[in-house]
Design goal:
It is built from 13 helices and seven strands. A seven-stranded mixed sheet has the order 2-1-7-3-6-5-4, with helices on both faces. Helix 10 crosses helix 11. The chain starts with 12 loop residues before the first strand and ends in a 7-residue tail after the last helix.
């Protein structure tokens, strides 16, 4: 799906709750789904989805939208970033450049960094994701405090404990003005509370949040089908149900790659 073929389906994301442990199979959904507008406000976020879910095209489109509104936004490929932050790390003029990044580093505005994707980075080496995060951390320096960073990965390749620890260590959650303005006494009290919470197992330190990109539901499947020329989306969807293929159609990259025109 290229830039011209991208269809805005108002994709939804649900936050995953890791309090049940490190096994992804044990993670549960927390709260209701949110859209891109809310996700882009996250300071640190992971977006997990399986192959064909459309996560790469979604974050590219998010970068273009931010840039069109005058924001500093960048799409970087983690497999390229593992060799250092170079022009090769970027995906094209419409999703940022090294020159624009260097300019942003000398400014004071918020910037958005969409990093794609953990599983692709690991194809070359298991250490590539770690190297990429460390290179980006070094490049951003103190400017990381004003960066909103979203990282994508296939859910099957995401390592809940070690990957999250890596991101939180090298791209730590930005310190808020509220945190910085607390008195020393307040800070000591919060430290005491955090130790107490850790003992009883309820500690929830600020850090990157993990989201799942939801598959397409029926209205979105119909919308995508109509975009690709299906006139009778009712017959089309019923045919998917009869063929037990709704799950396949819920992943837009897979569906559009092998779509057939059904006009009823």
């Amino acid at each position: 799906m290229n830039k011209q073929a991208f269809v805005d389906l108002d994709r939804r994301f649900v936050q995953l709750d890791d309090r049940l442990g490190g096994d992804m199979d044990d993670w549960i959904y927390a709260g209701h789904g949110i859209g891109w507008e809310a996700l882009a406000k996250e300071r640190r976020a992971m977006v997990l989805a399986e192959a064909g879910a459309g996560k790469t095209q979604e974050i590219k489109a998010a970068v273009r939208k931010l840039r069109d509104s005058g924001k500093a936004a960048f799409f970087l490929r983690l497999e390229e970033l593992s060799d250092g932050v170079t022009q090769a790390s970027f995906d094209g003029a419409d999703t940022g450049s090294l020159r624009e990044l260097d300019t942003w580093l000398n400014e004071t505005d918020t910037g958005w960094f969409m990093l794609d994707s953990v599983d692709e980075a690991r194809l070359g080496s298991a250490k590539n994701f770690e190297r990429a995060i460390k290179y980006l951390s070094g490049k951003l320096g103190d400017a990381a405090q004003r960066a909103n960073i979203i990282i994508t990965s296939r859910a099957s390749e995401w390592r809940p404990e070690s990957d999250l620890r890596l991101v939180n260590n090298f791209l730590p959650f930005p310190e808020t003005e509220e945190t910085a303005s607390h008195s020393n006494a307040d800070n000591l009290e919060r430290i005491f509370d955090s130790v107490t919470d850790a003992v009883d197992g309820s500690e929830r330190r600020p850090g990157a949040r993990v989201y799942s990109l939801l598959p397409l539901d029926e209205p979105r499947i119909r919308q995508l089908a109509a975009h690709f020329g299906v006139n009778d989306t009712n017959s089309f969807y019923h045919a998917l149900e009869r063929a037990d293929a709704v799950g396949f159609a819920s992943r837009p990259m897979r569906a559009s790659a092998r779509r057939t025109s059904r006009n009823g």
